[in-house]
TrEMBL record:
Source organism, top-level taxon: Bacteria
InterPro entries with a match to the protein in the record: TraX (IPR008875)
Sequence intervals crossing the membrane: 32-52, 64-86, 98-116, 128-147, 168-187, 193-210, 217-241, 253-274
UniProt KW keywords: Membrane, Transmembrane, Transmembrane helix
Keyword Phosphoprotein: no
Organism listed in the record: Galliscardovia ingluviei
Annotated Pfam families: TraX (PF05857)
Protein name: Uncharacterized protein
Length: 275
């Protein structure tokens, strides 16, 4: 959910001169559409923990199936958010502002998240997955800053000149530290089964390291998604149809996704209290 530079093609290309009024429809999914899809899927997961699960009969196979299905469907959003995060670092005009917004979002939404997910004001066993996004941003910056063959985009973060061996060593240490931090922080743990934070980090690392090799990147992410509960693998298929278009030009649209996340958690937290 980042703000992007003009490197993103936000216009709709015109067709040949002989038909100047016709416009070519851009195929694939723009960043705007990917964010919409991810938010819808995320909302289904919140609906499940806030409204559905508190009222299910644990002895009713139909109720249990519905609850599991809703949460599993929400996991499809994990690779989509991973792709959004990677592209955010690659194209953000102000990288540290981007990280600051994510940290602020995580802080503001922590209590509503706990209420909507666990029905308590604070739950140390399942914390807001937005914290995991912040961790992933730091990991991407480290991986990117040590890249010996950087791509030419709008990346505004630091770049360091180190040997290949040093680069590999630092990357391994940082990724291992991120894994440990996500495990200890319980960021994005869903119903005691899915650790969204760890899956998000795995997807982010794959997308960042293999972004020059589209097919290899997608196949690798799909395997990880399949091993992490199957449905995240379906999310990789959605990401595969990205078209490298931003899909909007107004800054307010991008910020609107931040606002929606907090508002939807607050609303479901209220429903959880009233239920």
């Amino acid at each position: 959910m980042a703000l992007y530079k003009r490197e993103w093609n936000t216009s709709i290309h015109q067709s040949a001169p002989e038909a100047p009024r016709r416009r070519k429809r851009q195929r694939g999914l723009s960043m705007f559409r990917l964010k919409i899809i991810a938010m819808v899927l995320l909302t289904l997961g919140t609906l499940n923990t806030a409204v559905v699960m508190p009222h299910i009969d644990m002895n009713n196979i139909g109720d249990l199936t519905l609850a599991i299905l809703l949460d599993a469907v929400s996991w499809v959003a994990i690779p989509i958010f991973a792709w959004i995060t990677v592209m955010g670092v690659h194209h953000s005009q102000h990288l540290w502002h981007y990280l600051g917004r994510v940290l602020l979002l995580a802080a503001l939404s922590e209590v509503p998240y706990d209420m909507a997910t666990s029905h308590v004001w604070f739950d140390s066993t399942s914390n807001n997955p937005v914290w995991a996004v912040a961790v992933c941003i730091v990991v991407i910056v480290v991986l990117r800053s040590l890249d010996t063959r950087p791509v030419h985009d709008a990346y505004t973060g630091p770049v360091y000149q180190v040997s290949y061996g040093q680069s590999i060593g630092i990357r391994i240490v940082v990724c291992a530290a991120a894994v440990l931090w996500l495990i200890l922080g319980h960021f994005g743990v869903r119903v005691g089964v899915m650790n969204e934070g760890l899956v998000l980090l795995a997807m982010v690392i794959i997308f960042e390291i293999l972004h020059r090799h589209e097919n290899t990147m997608m196949y690798s992410a799909a395997v990880v998604g399949a091993l992490a509960g199957l449905t995240p693998g379906l999310g990789v298929a959605v990401v595969h149809y990205h078209n490298d278009q931003l899909g909007y030009t107004k800054k307010a649209v991008g910020l609107g996704f931040y606002v929606y996340y907090v508002v939807h958690l607050v609303l479901f937290a209220v429903l959880a209290v009233l239920a």
